Amino acid sequence: MSKTSVKSKLVMIQSFANFMDSGSQSATVIFYEGVQPAGPAVAADPDNALVTLVFPEPCIKETTSTYVELHPTDTATVIKTGTATWARIFNGAGEVAADLTVGADISLANTNLVLGGTLSITSIKLRP
Question: Alpha helices, DSSP H only, in the chain?
């Protein structure tokens, strides 16, 4: 298996962030409860959606030698009480960009979301 340099991985992450900005809308991330699908090609159960956050355009705030930082999301209202177990990022064209496991790929201060509460992501750093 080949190994890639940190610099090349950062270029890949920056390309991913540019992909998030593609399309006529802003990129979003939806947090879900329940079992995460096997992969991004598998449809998510819309009944398990807890909250949808919107990224600004462009979503890249800064590229450094060790990470690509995204701008914070907006603050959104939670539409259903539940425990966030995973999240799906969509680009501005509504295409799935990535699935993230809460606790492993993305951290929340509190995974127990309550109907009518609010959520935002203030710091997003993609590291190789």
Answer: 6-21
